[in-house]
Amino acid sequence: MGRRAAGEMPRVVVHEASGNARVRFGGKTHWLGRCPQGVVTPEQLAKATRLWNEYLAAGEPAASVPVAEVVEVAVTPTAPPAAVACGITVAALALKYLDHAEVYYRTAEGRTTSSVDGIRMAARALFPFSDTAAVSFGPKSLKIVRESLVREGRPRVTCNRVVKTIRRMFKWAASEELVPAETWHALESVAALQKGRSTAPELPPVDEVPDQIVRATLPHLPRVVAAMVWFQRWTGARPGEVCLLRPCDIDRSGEVWVYTPEHHKLAWREDATPRRVAIGAEGQKVLMPFLLRAASSYCFSPREAETERLRDRRCQRQTPLYRSHLARLKDKHKGKAGGRRPGERYTTASYRRAITRAVEAANKLRESEGVDEMLPNWSPNQLRHLRAGEVEQALGIEAANAVLGHTNIRTTEIYARRKLQLAVEAQRQIG
What we know:
Blueprint lengths: L12 E3 L4 E6 L2 E7 L7 H17 L8 H9 L6 H4 L4 H15 L9 H12 L13 H13 L4 H20 L5 H7 L23 H7 L5 H13 L3 H5 L6 E2 L5 E3 L17 E3 L1 H7 L14 H14 L7 H10 L2 H5 L8 H21 L12 H15 L1 H8 L4 H7 L3 H12 L1
Helix pairs in contact: 4-5, 5-7, 6-7, 7-8, 10-12, 10-17, 17-18, 18-19
C-alpha cells in the first residue's frame, strides 16, 4: 500500500469486532457508528470528512467517542437524530436551493445558466456537513469549508465565490423560513479572502491573445469556427453574442451595420440597456457568406461545419466505400449515437472546445516538423481583450468602453491594458 499524500484523509474502515466504522488521525480513533451491512455509508464518510477538516483547521482532533459507548448505543433503541429535532439538514437545504436555482437561473431559451454550476460546486463543498442541522451551520463551519477549498488548491476568487454562494443559499432559506434569519446574518460576518493575505493561489489575469497566434490557429479550424473567430476579432463581441448571431438581428441600412442580440448576459437587470454591436467593413466581409440563409436561422451552425468536415473527409478518402462501410455508417445514426447530432448553433463551450482542438492540431503538426515553439492554448474571450486594446490605443478608453458595451468604464479597464505602451510612446516623443 502506498503512503498517503500530505493532507489526505486516512481511510475509513469497519471494525470487525463491533461492526462500527472508524477513522484514525491525530493519535486518536474516531468512531462513526454501526455499519448496517458491514459497509461504510455516505453519511459516515461525510462525518469523517467533517472531523478531518475540523482537525486540520484547528490543529487538533475533535473529541472522539470510546468504542464501548458506540456499541452500547448500537444495541439500544436509538434517539431521534439531531438533524430532525433541529429542522432541515444542510444537505436537504442545498437540494431545495438547487431545485429553485434550476428554475430561476435560466436564459430566454430555457437553458440553465452558469450560476447553477456554481451552486452545484457549493453543494459539493458542503458535503462534509451534509448531516448537520442547517441552523447549526455557523461562521466557523463556513470557514472550515473555505479552508478545505484552499487546501485543494482552489484559487482565491473561486473560494470567495463558493462562500458567497453559500451565504446566498442561506439567505434564500431564511426568506423561505427554513432557517432563522440569524443564521444567515451570522454567515455574513465571514469576510472574503483578500489578495496577498491568504495561502490560496491567485489566477493570472486574462490577457489579449497575440494576433500571430490567432492566425497560426486559423488553418486548423473549421470554416464556420474560423469565421466566428474573425468576426469576434474585428467586433469585440462576447462569445455568446457571436453564437447567437442571426441575419434578422442585423441592421444593414447604414455604412456600419448594427447587430442587436436577441438576449445578452446582462438582460436580467432592470436597468439593462439593449446591447448593440457595431460591425465595420472587416466584420462585414467575414459575415457576408453566412447571411444567405433564413432570416431567423443562426449564421454559425455546427451542422453546417460537420457537413463540410464529412464532405472533406469523403473527398480525401483513398479507397471507395464498400457495402459494409455504408451499412456501418447507417447503424451509427441509430439509437443513442444517432441522437448525438450537432445542434443548430454553437454554445460558448463548444466554441471554446473547437479552438482548443485546433491549437492541439497545430502543435501536433509543429512537433512533427521539429518546431520547438508551441502555440499556447487560448480562449475566445481573449479576442475581446485583443480588440479592446486596439481600440483603446487608437481612440481611447471611452471608445473601447462603447465597443465592448460596458456601463462602467472601470470594467473596460480590465480589458484594455495598453496604457503603459501609451505612456512609453508619450515619453519617447516629448521626454
